[in-house]
């Protein structure tokens, strides 16, 4: 049996641009996700990184069908879930959960924590009383007595722990964490990341971890997918990506990560990208990155590159990939 838990094939998600009733002309759409294909193996953490607006959060929501797909296929544990109705999806919702970015907006302020954590059991008609709620709170490092409090009585880090507890309630196999620490203080970020790491081992979880902080993603991920303007431009094991990026966009992202190096020879030269990110309503033809790429040539403007394997499971979509060191056969 395949160890692939989640598979996306040519996933596309477009959002219509709403205009006034007197607007005329062709219908325009935002190309939020445009032809993404990837696999997530059981038990691994796949990091998804990119600039704000690149489509990574939309992709995460599409993978668990919180957004309807414009086209493409999503398979969970070998089953095509792309066109399932809400009723057909309900049993699978127990297997797929999300942790949302903003812990202040993702919890109902009118409900006590105990009510929030009992909600998944009520919806799915599963046994889950006060003892189960207290167990969930203990698992995420909170006091069981907190069940009688309201969300506004907690700090941001504590609220995110409550969000994690809610995601764990039905013992899912997959959790999509949509920038779960970006709204938290740096000191609290480490605590939540360590919590997620411990829970993965305890509950045999599979993560899709979405973030814009490459330092955080490197710490938690087994593999990393780099997105730019709705498309994946590079996909690689985490250590391999950081050691030897192939796509010029990934190289530029890594050069912007502040790092204190003991050896000055290990410092990356800062690469400043020219121009602004193109509009997702009218993305560039060919390679999406070519208007800002220092290596771009004529072919980059007319032909969209596909993800090619450059060895060791390292894929990149680039007509002019960065050179890699030669590997000597043993």
Tally of individual helices: 10
Separation, N- and C-terminal Cα atoms: 32 Å
Largest sheet: 8 strands, mixed
The fraction of residues assigned to DSSP E strands is 15-25%
Strands ordered across the widest β-sheet? 6-7-8-3-9-10-12-11
Query: Uncertain spans, ≥5 residues at pLDDT below 50?
Result: 325-330
Number of strand elements: 12
What is the mean predicted local confidence, pLDDT?
89
Structure in words:
The protein has 330 residues and is an alpha/beta fold. The protein has ten helices and twelve strands. An eight-stranded mixed β-sheet has the order 6-7-8-3-9-10-12-11, with helices on both faces. A four-stranded antiparallel β-sheet has the order 2-1-4-5. Helix 6 links the parallel strand 7 and strand 8. The chain is globular and about 65 Å long. The two termini are 32 Å apart.
Brief rundown of the structure:
With 330 residues, the protein is α/β, with parallel strands linked by helices. The protein has helices at 56-63, 86-93, 113-123, 130-139, 156-168, 186-203, 214-220, 238-243, 248-255, 298-302; strands at residues 4-16, 29-41, 45-49, 71-76, 79-80, 96-99, 174-178, 206-210, 223-228, 231-237, 308-309, 315-316.
What is the secondary structure topology, with strand pairs?
Blueprint: E1 4-16, E2 29-41, E3 45-49, H1 56-63, E4 71-76, E5 79-80, H2 86-93, E6 96-99, H3 113-123, H4 130-139, H5 156-168, E7 174-178, H6 186-203, E8 206-210, H7 214-220, E9 223-228, E10 231-237, H8 238-243, H9 248-255, H10 298-302, E11 308-309, E12 315-316
Parallel strand pairs: 3-8, 3-9, 6-7, 7-8
Antiparallel strand pairs: 1-2, 1-4, 4-5, 9-10, 10-12, 11-12
Helix pairs in contact: 5-6
């Amino acid at each position: 049996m395949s160890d692939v838990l989640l598979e996306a094939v040519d996933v596309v998600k477009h959002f219509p641009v709403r205009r006034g009733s007197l607007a005329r002309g062709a219908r325009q759409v935002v190309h939020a996700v445009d032809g993404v294909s990837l696999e997530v193996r059981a038990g691994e953490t796949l990091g998804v990184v990119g600039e704000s607006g690149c489509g990574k959060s939309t992709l995460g929501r599409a993978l668990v069908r919180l957004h309807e797909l414009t086209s493409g296929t999503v398979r969970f544990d070998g089953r095509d879930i792309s066109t399932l109705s809400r009723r057909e999806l309900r049993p699978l919702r127990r297997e797929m959960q999300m942790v949302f970015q903003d812990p202040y907006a993702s919890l109902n302020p009118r409900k006590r924590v105990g009510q929030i954590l009992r909600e998944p059991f009520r919806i799915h008609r599963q046994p889950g009383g006060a003892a189960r709620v207290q167990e969930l709170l203990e698992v995420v490092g909170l006091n069981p007595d907190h069940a009688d409090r309201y969300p506004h009585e907690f700090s941001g880090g504590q609220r995110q722990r409550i969000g994690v507890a809610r995601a764990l309630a039905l013992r899912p196999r997959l959790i999509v964490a949509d920038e779960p620490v970006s709204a938290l203080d740096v000191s609290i970020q480490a605590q939540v990341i360590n919590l997620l790491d411990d829970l993965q081992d305890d509950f045999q979880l599979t993560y899709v971890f979405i973030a814009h902080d490459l330092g955080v993603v490197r710490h938690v991920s087994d593999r990393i997918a780099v997105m730019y303007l709705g498309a994946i431009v590079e996909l690689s094991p985490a250590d391999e990506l950081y050691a030897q990026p192939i796509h010029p966009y990934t190289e530029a992202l890594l050069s912007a990560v502040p790092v204190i190096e003991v050896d000055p020879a290990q410092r990356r030269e800062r690469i400043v990208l020219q121009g602004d990110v193109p509009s997702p309503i009218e993305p560039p033809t060919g390679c999406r990155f070519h208007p800002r790429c220092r290596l771009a040539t004529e072919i980059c403007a007319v032909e969209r590159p596909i993800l090619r394997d450059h060895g060791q499971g390292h894929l990149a979509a680039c007509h002019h990939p960065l050179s890699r060191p030669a590997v000597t056969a043993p």
